[in-house]
Structure formats: structure tokens, C-alpha cells
Amino acid sequence: MSLAAGICRTACYAIQFVTMESAISTRPQTLGELKASSWCSKSVKREMHDNLLRKLAAGDRLFPGIIGYDDTVIPDLCTAILAQHDLLFLGEKGQAKSRVMRGLVDLLDECIPYIKGGELHEDPYMPITAFGRRMVEEKGDTTPIEWWPREERYVERLAPGTKFADVIGEIDPAQLASGTSLSSEEALHFGLIPRMHRGIFAMNEIPELDELVQVGLFNILEERDVQIRGYPVRFDLDICILFSANPATYNRSGKVIPQLKDRIGSIIRTHYPQDRAYGIEIMEQEAGIDTGGEYPVHVPLFMKEIVEQMTIEARKSPHVDHASGVSARFSIANYQTMIAAARRRGVLLDEKPTVPRITDLGHLLASSLGKLEVDLMSSHQLSEPQILESIQNAAIKAVFDEYVDTHGLDAIAEIFAKGVKVEVGTMLPSKNYAVRLQRVPPAWEKAFEVNAASDDAMRAACVEFVLAGLYVNEQISRISKHGVVRYDI
Questions:
Q1: Domain range list for the chain
Q2: Contact 207, 245 (CB under 8 A)
Q3: Which residues pair with 486 in a beta bridge?
Q4: Which superfamily does CATH assign the domain made up of 24-269 to?
Q5: What is the per-residue pLDDT across 303-312, written as a single tens digit (0 to 9) for each?
Q6: Which tens digits make up the pLDDT trace of 59-88?
Q7: Which residue, 177, 173, 196, is CA-closest to 119?
Q8: Going by C-beta distance under 8 Å and a sequence separation of 6 or more, which residues neighbour residue 120?
Q9: Which has the closest alpha carbon to 414: 441, 391, 389, 393?
Q10: Is pLDDT at 48 greater than 90 in this prediction?
Q11: Mean of per-residue pLDDT scores for the chain
Q12: Torsion over CA of 216, 220, 225 and 226, rounded to 10 degrees?
């Protein structure tokens, strides 16, 4: 970053800080000032309800960054929010459940007032703890007020390893040691849920949650109160609770207690992209790669389609555990790896721009391993690399058949049948491909059908696409070794 740019950015931050400080200073700072303002108290679910209605009426985009859910998940979610329900997001891994939950923060008010000094961000009009009630009784309209921004009103927790004390609370031994009575409210240490009073609490992977904690949660969902070790205290909590789960574990008997299931207001079913174009859009958005720079990378559409089609094929594969699902991260990591492999070639061969090729997909093993749950009950036991290779070949075939008329491949196969061999590879300079294909001119012509560009790097990518398409359609054979691929009969 240049010095001028750094100074400009620092100045912008300073302006934003001053603006924020000015906005805070103009807000009511005492209970009396709050009463004199136009601020009205409302529950967090009512707050989300009202803000959603305003966004719908204004035609605002809901949940920016969420792709492919406009006609499916989002309408159901809006209905559940307007019904003021606690929600469960049910779907396989990598279906943006957590991202959608975090997006609900945008439906909260910009900030809300609370009694200064309290642990539970209490509504100045409706304090729920002994501290809050005492402050209002003693100070009246001079009770100090602070403001809680929407970004801090959301917290999430992963279920495995979560204990009752973490999310609900526990008796605080330090308070007892200091002489605080066990019958006093001050003896309690509050967990995440009480601390998110007037906010949103999300629990990921609810089936993995300890049963004791599940019991505490369904009491909160039904009665909206907290009970810690039988201590007779009731807090009228105002909170929106969200859960996420995989259908395979959520529906398994005994994983989630029936009383908790019964108290969840609405279940929102998520899904994988229903169109490959949506999957590509998600892949590009989440990969976050700058394909420009000193060594730019131009990615042809058919290569993007192959990477996304690999994920689609994996979800259909009999060798992959369908109950676990195949996350969008499979596409994202593979897309990042493919671009990285192409950029490495561009640097070493000084090619600008460089274009990803089929041989670059040989590097995807590193980014794919561990992202698939192999079905151990499958009748055909294959190693994970073998499964990934079959998935990749199926993806190439699916995309190739869309681009090229397969009935016109016989002429190319006949040339290879005469003993012609073509060797390509991830480190072969792009300009060499025209020479390599002189003995198989129909393959060069097919490459032009895929993309009519005259750029050497794009031509090389198209040539490899045609050769790989011939192979997956069983027209020619292939031998791969150390990034070099030889095609023959």
C-alpha cells in the first residue's frame, strides 16, 4: 500500500470513528432522556418481525451473499420470522446454514439501550435481575444507559463439548468464597444464553449436545426462564434461539430429545445448489481469488463447470456417503487449487496470462482428500484417490458432452488408431500445443469448437479438454505420470 493510500485510509477510519462517536453522544444517556425520546421497547422477535416487514416493503435484498435460495429457503425463513418462531436449520454440511443464521443479525435494530453496568443488557423499561431493578428504583430517571450494537447481539456455539455451565450458568464458587449467600442471585455465573438476553443465540449441530443441556434448552424455549442447580430464580429471557443439524443425525432416534424437538417453532430445510450455474457463482464468491495481478489467470467457463460438476458427481457417487453430503467447500478448495497450479506454471514459464488445463486437475487430490466421507458399505471398495479420479472423469464427460458433438469424434480416434501419440502436461508451454497436434488436425478443429480464441494458452486448455473428452468417452487411452499425460490407442 502506498503512503498516500495509507494516509487516506487512516483519515477515513478517523471520520467513521468521529461519526460513530457523535451518533452515540446524541442518543439518550439516562432513563429520563430515553423516556423523552421516541424509543419504544419491543421483544427481539418483534424487532426482527418489524424490520423484515420494512425490508420486504422496500424491496431490499435479503441475505446478501446467499445464492440459490431466493425461491426456496428464504420464503420459508421469512414466514418463520414473521411467525416469531425459534428456528432449526436442517441440511447437510456446506449448505450455508451458519451463514444464513448470521445474516439474521441484519434484521435487528442498529442498537438498543440497556442499563449500564448489568451483565444481561437489560431493557431499562423492563429489568429482569435484582441489579437492574435496584438501579431503576434507586436512580430513577438518572439511571445510566448504554447502547448495544446489533453486531454484538449474536453469538453461536458448537454443540460438541458444550456443558450446562457454558450456555446456561452455574453457581460461582468465587462469589461463595467471598461471602455471598447461596440464596442470593449474585452467587450465579451466567452462561451464553442469559448473556444474550435481547439477542440471538445459535447452537450448531444440536444432535451432538449433551442431554442435560437439551433439557435446559427446552425449558428456556417453553418458559423463557433460567433455572440453575434448582436455585429458585426466574429470568424472563427475551431471546431468539437458532439451531442447525444434519438430517441424518437429527432424525436418528435418541439424538435429540422429543421435548426439545416439539418446542422448536419452525424447521427450515436447506439444500445444495439446484443449478450448476448457482454452484459456480458460490464457488467464485467464496474462493475470493484475485485472478489478475502480475501473473493473471483466465479461467474458461468449461473449467469452472468441470470443477463444480465434480461436486455434483460426488453427491451422486455410490462410493460417497450421501447422509454426510458433499460440502460446497469441495468446489471452493478445488477451484483455488486449480488456479494456483495454473499460476505456478505462468510464473515458471513466464506465460501471461495463463489458463487452467485438464492436467492441472491432477493437483486436486491434495484439496479433495478428507472432504468426502467414503461409504464403507459400498459393494465396490475403492481407495479415496480412485474414487476422486472416477468423479473427475464423470465430471469431464458431463461437461464435454455438452460442448462437443460426440458423433464427430470417430475421425480423431481413427488417427490415434494408426499409432499416433500425443503428450501433454501441466508444465508444457502453451505455444507447443499447436506443434503437438499437427498430426491430429481434427482434434485442433474440435478445440476451436469449444473456444474460437487464438490465444496460445486458451488453445492449450481447449486441446486438453478435447483429448480428455476423447478419453472419458473411451475413444483413446491415457497414461499419466508426474504431471505428464500421454494419449494413444
A1: 24-269, 276-488
A2: yes
A3: 423, 479
A4: P-loop containing nucleotide triphosphate hydrolases (3.40.50.300)
A5: 999 999 999 9
A6: 999 999 999 999 999 999 999 999 999 999
A7: 196
A8: 128, 129, 132, 190, 194, 195, 197, 235
A9: 441
A10: yes
A11: 87
A12: 30
